[in-house]
Amino acid sequence: MRGFDEEERERIREELMAAGRDLFARYGPRKTTIADLTDAVGIANGTFYRFFDSKEELYFEVVQREGHELADELVANSLAAEDDPERAIRRFLRLLVETMEENELFQQLLEGDELARMMRTMDGLSDEELEARRAASFAYVLPYVERWQEAGKIRDGDPYAIVGAMGVVKFLPLYREQFGEYYPAVRDTLIETVAAGLTRPPE
After folding, report:
1. What pTM did the predictor assign?
2. pLDDT at 2 over 70
3. Is it the case that residue 203 has pLDDT exceeding 70?
């Protein structure tokens, strides 16, 4: 089997990522096959495994990249754009939830048990890799929380816990059907409550 030089490997890997992003967003990871991915790139099915251990690993990488790319935009339009922490957090959470509601790739993630399936992909990661990925995801928001804490504008406490609490809001669309017609009100109330609770010290 012919080997690939570093430039070819990088090109093929990026093409698989791009094809995966398109196919996963349209059909979801369950309905997307290895053949769909390799046909889009022009490689043999077996060659796929020289780049990713599984379709689920590719899906995980695609979702991670999408999240990091969108995080810059979300932060720029919220935390970095508002002077008042409560308004900034409220806007950030609203944009975060709207992204989960509207982005086709993330919509597929919220279908059925796809989120749980993707999380199981993380079981094979080392503790160091898990920590590195967690730190990378927190890095967008953490500096703002730490700066506001130093200025006394946000409640005390572990800044990582505060960032984590903010991030939990993105999973609210998982329960959109259960809330039915009340979903918009529940979403807005939760966002308002989290933003106010984090920026108003407890009595």
Report:
1. 0.83
2. no
3. no
Token pair, residue 173, equals 């669309």
For residue 16, what are the domain limits?
1-52
The conformational region for residue 82 under phi > 0 = left, psi -120 to 50 = alpha, else beta, is beta
- The CA distance from 155 to 201, in Å, is 5
Q: Which amino acid is at 92?
A: F
CATH of the domain at 153: 1.10.357.10
Instruction: Report residue 112 as tokens.
Output: 């059925």
- C-beta separation of 133 from 64 below 8 A: yes
State the helix-helix crossing angle for 183-199 and 159-168, rounded to 10 degrees.
Answer: 170
Percentage of residues of the chain with pLDDT beyond 90:
65
Q: What is the DSSP letter of 103?
A: -
Query: Residue 201 has what pLDDT?
Result: 67
Residue 135 to residue 129: CA distance in whole angstroms? 10
